Fold this sequence. Notes:
Two copies of one chain form a homodimer.
Chain A: H1 15-18, H2 21-28, E1 34-36, E2 38-39, E3 42-43, E4 53-55, E5 65-71, E6 74-79, H3 91-99, H4 102-119, E7 131-133, E8 140-142, E9 148-149, E10 154-163, E11 166-171, E12 183-186, H5 193-205, E13 209-220, E14 226-235, E15 249-254, H6 255-262, H7 278-287
Parallel strand pairs in A: 1-6, 10-14
Antiparallel strand pairs in A: 1-4, 2-3, 5-6, 7-8, 8-9, 10-11, 10-12, 11-15, 13-14
Helix pairs in contact in A: 6-7
Amino acid sequence: xxxxxxxxxxxxxxxxxxxxxxxxxxxxxxxxxxxxxxxxxxxxxxxxxxxxxxxxxxxxxxxxxxxxxxxxxxxxxxxxxxxxxxxxxxxxxxxxxxxxxxxxxxxxxxxxxxxxxxxxxxxxxxxxxxxxxxxxxxxxxxxxxxxxxxxxxxxxxxxxxxxxxxxxxxxxxxxxxxxxxxxxxxxxxxxxxxxxxxxxxxxxxxxxxxxxxxxxxxxxxxxxxxxxxxxxxxxxxxxxxxxxxxxxxxxxxxxxxxxxxxxxxxxxxxxxxxxxxxxxxxxxxxxxx
Amino acid sequence: xxxxxxxxxxxxxxxxxxxxxxxxxxxxxxxxxxxxxxxxxxxxxxxxxxxxxxxxxxxxxxxxxxxxxxxxxxxxxxxxxxxxxxxxxxxxxxxxxxxxxxxxxxxxxxxxxxxxxxxxxxxxxxxxxxxxxxxxxxxxxxxxxxxxxxxxxxxxxxxxxxxxxxxxxxxxxxxxxxxxxxxxxxxxxxxxxxxxxxxxxxxxxxxxxxxxxxxxxxxxxxxxxxxxxxxxxxxxxxxxxxxxxxxxxxxxxxxxxxxxxxxxxxxxxxxxxxxxxxxxxxxxxxxxx
Lengths: 289, 289
């Protein structure tokens, strides 16, 4: 079974509490409450490994909190910290992800996506009025026109085109030297997952595809809140016409080459994405399937 | 092969033109251009069936247009009409969908989702400044802080829990009498498709589920822009505890009962969702699989 990164949070989201101000206030006054420790947007790590949690007593009453969920009777919160938006991941968070237990990475990912959403929805898109958090941090309401806004997630398709036992991997100019990954792009209004997969592969690499198989999915908390949807598409040919605004290079690789990359073998012909990226899960699924 | 509603648009979205103001201006002056006819948010129908298209000459130069895409060398646009937001579907659009060819429904769906997005993003969520369309209508830019905003789509999971050869269908109070459908809900930041499916079934019906199989997907243009992701989940039992805020009733149905509903048989025990809804495609896939 595939276990993509940022999945497997042990927290019960407890939607019913979000809608019940009385229950929520009781949780805010519960001494067992835990508040996620952050350093800017990066996770604070506990000395014994894992995320660092503050007690409620350490948190100023003015700090706006989001209820991440319940675990073993304890409410878990994260503060809505200010951020300028569109922050890319720091080296620190990247390093943290290589040591955090998967359940902790899932909690952190949820928290980071929600913080980003709050910061990018301070004003109402309909009327320009100021919005304020409600529903235990799972919404913002406009003080002017009363429109309710809810946390959003952008679907992204990420996929391998497959032809004659090989799959297509590409590299963006910003990737570390030698790194290749699955192609990816935002799904647009008015298209299905399958249509977005075919459109993106054709736009980026000039390859037409037929049937699309869904493989797995993952939330991704960098640059907002994304839902990564991993697929494999049957290509109709191997000739490439690259969109050089998107891709610096792309190539077809065999299962042996994919396995060598995933195993970090000395004779590997490319470097694979890190284990917490769904491109890694997708390539692994294909290479050993 | 499953062909969900609102898929199969013949238009080439031509992303490269959106980013090229010179090419885009040439299209705005192309006499072959076609502009989608709307009556409020509802589609105007042509007398010979299908969508009604205006020529460019019929459109005032002040109207803001979105480039839907190209077909046979002709640019296809839709005007950004004003709407108050959150409009539910009218009876007229519901009737139109029963007669529109699938390709036309797909074009209309894309247009409607984009119009809704423009109307709900007139102001910048970060700074409250006024935004203006750019990228051929596939974006809005803040005149104050320069933040670029792009059309968004909200992922929704829609699913059947399966146990012992039966699946769970439910009805919301707003459904027509006798109608049952798949359960559904918005995917939240920080969860995968599989996690959202399990959470929603448990929240709405109190049923725990294990493995989740993806079936198909569909864009849905009512109440914004949604990506419907249809799945089947393996339930661990049949006992129901309904969230009566969400569901008025739910029941387990057999393949025979699902087929009778889909065939609109006289002895049917429930009425199925309409063919252009993905719940119909999902139920069909399960009942005849």
